[in-house]
Amino acid sequence: xxxxxxxxxxxxxxxxxxxxxxxxxxxxxxxxxxxxxxxxxxxxxxxxxxxxxxxxxxxxxxxxxxxxxxxxxxxxxxxxxxxxxxxxxxxxxxxxxxxxxxxxxxxxxxxxxxxxxxxxxxxxxxxxxxxxxxxxxxxxxxxxxxxxxxxxxxxxxxxxxxxxxxxxxxxxxxxxxxxxxxxxxxxxxxxxxxxxxxxxxxxxxxxxxxxxxxxxxxxxxxxxxxxxxxxxxxxxxxxxxxxxxxxxxxxxxxxxxxxxxxxxxxxxxxxxxxxxxxxxxxxxxxxxxxxxxxxxxxxxxxxxxxxxxxxxxxxxxxxxxxxxxxxxxxxxxxxxxxxxxxxxxxxxxxxxxxxxxxxxxxxxxxxxxxxxxxxxxxxxxxxxxxxxxxxxxxxxxxxxxxxxxxxxxxxxxxxxxxxxxxxxxxxxxxxxxxxxxxxxxxxxxxxxxxxxxxxxxxxxxxxxxxxxxxxxxxxxxxxxxxxxxxxxxxxxxxxxxxxxxxxxxxxxxxxxxxxxxxxxxxxxxxxxxxxxxxxxxxxxxxxxxxxxxxxxxxxxxxxxxxxxxxxxxxxxxxxxxxxxxxxxxxxxxxxxxxxxxxxxxxxxxxxxxxxxxxxxxxxxxxxxxxxxxxxxxxxxxxxxxxxxxxxxxxxxxxxxxxxxxxxxxxxxxxxxxxxxxxxxxxxxxxxxxxxxxxxxxxxxxxxxxxxxxxxxxxxxxxxxxxxxxxxxxxxxxxxxxxxxxxxxxxxxxxxxxxxxxxxxxxxxxx
Length: 766
Hints:
It is globular and about 85 Å long. The protein has 5 domains: 4-163, no CATH class; 174-349, Alpha-Beta Plaits; 365-437, no CATH class; 444-452 and 460-637, Reverse transcriptase/Diguanylate cyclase domain (Alpha-Beta Plaits, 2-Layer Sandwich); 640-766, no CATH class. 42% of the residues lie in helices and 16% in strands. A hairpin with an 8-residue loop joins strand 13 (383-389) and strand 14 (398-405).
């Protein structure tokens, strides 16, 4: 009987063959088509008339507001292969004229026939390599329909074919949905001792936990990796057959992992995992989005019944011991608590898990490859993480180890699965190196410490919080940024309307992952090469940033760094994301930033930035919370168009002309360029803050913030104090007519506190 891997490989080979024919390259012969492959292709509309073309952006088709119209201009992907260089993922761009497209197509074909397709000749059975070729090349090419990527149609066709392998007459499939809940509690609820290092390690560790859950499911269900629709950030979606066997295996995997998670982390992390049947015929229709959404919703039932199968473990009487001073668990015997950092005499006592995370954090810098193996010891590994799953039902115990390597060349050819981190080099995936190599995409940028002591044995690792603070401009503080995509659930549930098919849903997931796991690494590392020319840069000459990605993937991020660089990075991310999504008004980001002393407890800083992000969401989304203020991104960056101003406010201020400087950043930039001196700066900041305070106190008495009296207070009360403030600035500022008139404008009245705070932090000496 044909296996799922065989049918999936055949689909991928056929996709590569279509690519080769399009590029005028001779491909190896194709075997007779399996009936499962034929049926899967029929379901998704893959036929002999399906042609390759330039891929139109899926983001163009997303619409959440029924009354809004989709933009008429079309965005297409730039014809570039994904590489390991500075520009790891191409931007979306306007397709302008036929002549330029023909030239790009010709150049692109020449590139792939010279550098890409020759790799298939001796690797026609190498599933991983062929899939990587489809990602490198097929992520910017359409197949059949203009907004369906070649890689997505190939992957979903292979997933369907693999799901019905050996039984192509089945009428139902299963969508396996998983969610690691409690991630925030696991990551953030730790003390300040070694927190930044440990936080990065915990985030990385959970990525590997997600990977292992996926590996266990695929192995036991005999499915290839094409059946992973999405996996990352503690979430997973896998396509499988609709049999009761699948449901039973999913239940046992859930029980096995939860038994391990309960013992390992005292119930802080829980795996909600289930599978949901749906008609096979719905997979190529908008109904698949309903099944996707319903499965995600129904999974919440498991979240509300955490560890129901392990309830006896909870109610058993157990001794309480001195708590770990990092994670505060108290179920570890005192004798097993040891110093978190053995090289520091006053280091706090910590449990084995926290010590492992601390040590891991010091060894994550520069990791190129990870070997997944049942072997506990492998020569050359810099660190090893072990998953020891207990026996459950028919499942025996599982001991799997993840070995970290700084250089992939250190890994033996006979190694088990090799995960290559952010590696798009085709040669590394050939059988001459490893039996089974897979790409692992991670948002993992981190600046290497420049202050490592030469006499220490500890490996040079990521920059610490104290060093980040010293790198900051003005006040020595660390910034923490949290951001995520607004209304992502709605985008997947209804954003594509009638075109909500599985290949497109897979495409949306892939595009989001590429931005957060691939593009952001490049944006942080080589800034100028990875930003559109149209965006506003706060410091155009900055190249590398003093940042650490604690987490970046899926649709969100958590980043620490020098406070001013965190602010700059937030604006870069927002503007790049808007350009990446074709400035679709229904696809936006919200973010929050906290700014704290390097010694401030990191879990509190994480909460503060999270609260700022929630305030931004409450501001109608598409906003940033910063300096205890919340405004739309355009208000921070500088408003070009009054259309973003509230309609009632515009009506009230209709007689006022739009000032040349409008928003927060334009004033900060102007004063920084003028270099007005410390004393003038302090006086300006002081007076501006007093003005803001007078406004805020006066507004407290109004129940209706939109009443005429309240609006008058908000937009005109500042004038006497601002006139006083301006009169005390140096002549070079007073001679700046645009600055003087703009600061007096009622349109800028809401921004005084944010402007003053920003200037104060930039000019204060710690």
